[in-house]
Specification:
17 helices, 0% strand
Length: 465
């Protein structure tokens, strides 16, 4: 553990960032395969069955995102604070954060399961399920809910593994589950002819395997921060700052579901006879964007323990160097992905389906929908650096800006004037405005945070130190 902490504080920033970021990127990409692999297999069910099933998974997915977001609320709020405590050499304080976070995840799992089981049918209808799609979405989502605990534990606890510098172990957490999902999906969907139910069972079983792995590691001597009985509890002074910092990543993920509600609802309202096709195409376009953004999330996760640890240790020069490298890397990646979407939109669509109408609708729409991807490297690097620095309030506002303040209202208003085209163009408008705003805000805040070689008392209080 001392070796890992020393590396966070002394190893060359470039080598350290990419040694932590590459496994985190791999973990994010692999994690995305959970639902994307389901969609790829389901989309190839024979005839119209595949198209309807794909739309059904698209309707259920926003609710799944909400469930996953609660894991981010705890994990992405707790891990940076634990890293800051580690930088201050407060090991007991870091373990108290881990113990409280574990208990919080158990409570959330029980509450979320009960809530969504009770309201799943009206919620699925609200999120755009038509008469034909509702039974399929309900079938998948009901099975998924039975594994809520197995979703919360690996997603909520894995950041605590990465926060210690064990990036490869964090990658294995999701790699083991995703590989299990890839193997089980064709067996259950096609081999046992279970269709959508098979996809859901494969996902739950895979998440269970990931949960066992992450719990085994955090309870073992290999982990510097361990889940110990004496650290378990739910203390307001410990969990409160965790939730405050976790609200920003929670909103970034949870609002994806509200976005899909607005987008799918718009397609349902303005798509006419092609509504089911347009919902399916939008489902694929959202999947493409989410998959392409995963490496940006991995980059910021790789940078988080370096930034948080060195901020806690008052090594602000290393914080600045890490951010500069993160920003340049993120912008390079987002620019490259933007270019690929503009040049080869049809190839991205064909990964998910061979249905000609769906491919045609998505090919024409993706160039518009992904236009703002060019600047999202700036959005992610700046906003997530503020989370790593413990800046809960500012991170919250910026997290609300892109999806809640901009995208959802645009997706509701613009179709009134431009029809389906208004739905497509709402995404890039929100992305560009949010990226420019976040970068500007970060520029002024970092001047205040880094104005001296130490952390002023007021900033320590704000960071929850």
């Amino acid at each position: 553990m001392e070796t890992t902490e020393n590396k966070l504080g002394t190893a060359p920033v470039g080598k350290l960032l990419f040694s932590l970021a590459l496994p985190a990127i791999a973990a994010q990409v692999i994690n995305a395969l959970y639902n994307i692999v389901d969609r790829i297999y389901i989309g190839r069910l024979p005839g119209s069955e595949g198209s309807l099933a794909l739309a059904g998974l698209g309707i259920a997915y926003p609710l799944i995102l909400i469930i996953s977001a609660f894991a981010s609320l705890v994990g992405m709020g707790g891990a940076p604070r634990a890293s800051i405590k580690m930088g201050q050499k407060d090991h007991d304080g870091a373990e108290r954060i881990l113990g409280n976070s574990f208990v919080m995840l158990l409570i959330l799992s029980a509450v979320l399961t009960a809530f969504f089981l009770a309201l799943k049918t009206p919620l699925l209808s609200l999120f755009g399920a038509t008469e034909d799609i509702l039974p399929i979405a309900d079938e998948y989502f009901t099975i998924y809910l039975c594994g809520t605990l197995f979703v919360q534990l690996p997603l909520g606890l894995n950041p605590f593994i990465s926060a210690q510098g064990f990036a490869k172990t964090g990658m294995l957490t999701v790699a083991i589950g995703a590989l299990s999902n890839i193997i089980l999906d064709p067996i259950l969907i096609f081999g046992l002819d279970m269709g959508v139910s098979g996809a859901a069972i494969a996902t739950v079983a895979s998440q269970f395997i990931s949960a066992v792995w992450v719990m085994a590691f955090l309870c073992s001597k290999k982990s510097g921060l361990r889940i110990r009985r004496c650290r378990l509890g739910l203390q307001p002074k410990v969990i409160g700052p965790v939730i405050a910092l976790g609200v920003s990543p929670f909103i970034m993920q949870a609002t994806e579901s509200l976005v899909q509600l607005a987008l799918n609802g718009g397609m349902k309202s303005y798509g006419g006879a092609e509504a089911n096709t347009l919902v399916g195409a939008m489902t694929i376009m959202i999947s493409i964007m989410q998959f392409l953004l995963m490496p940006l999330v991995g980059l910021t996760q790789g940078a988080q323990p370096i930034i948080s640890y060195n901020y806690g240790a008052n090594r602000l020069g290393r914080v600045k160097r890490t951010f500069r490298l993160l920003f340049i890397s993120s912008m390079t990646y987002s620019t490259l992905m933007w270019a690929l979407c503009m040049l080869f939109p049809q190839l991205f669509m064909l990964v998910f389906t061979n249905d000609a109408p769906t491919v045609a609708a998505g090919t024409s729409g993706l160039r518009i929908f992904a236009a703002g991807l060019l600047l999202l490297g700036a959005q992610y690097s700046c906003q997530q650096t503020l989370v790593a620095l413990g800046q809960a309030k500012v991170s919250l506002v910026l997290a609300l800006l892109r999806k809640v303040i901009l995208l959802i209202p645009l997706a509701v208003v613009l179709p009134m004037f431009f029809g389906v085209g208004g739905i497509y163009v709402s995404e890039p408008i929100a992305d560009v405005v949010a990226a420019l705003t976040t970068t500007t805000v970060f520029y002024f805040i970092q001047k205040k945070l880094f104005r001296s070689p130490g952390l002023p008392a007021g900033e320590k209080k704000q960071a929850g130190i």
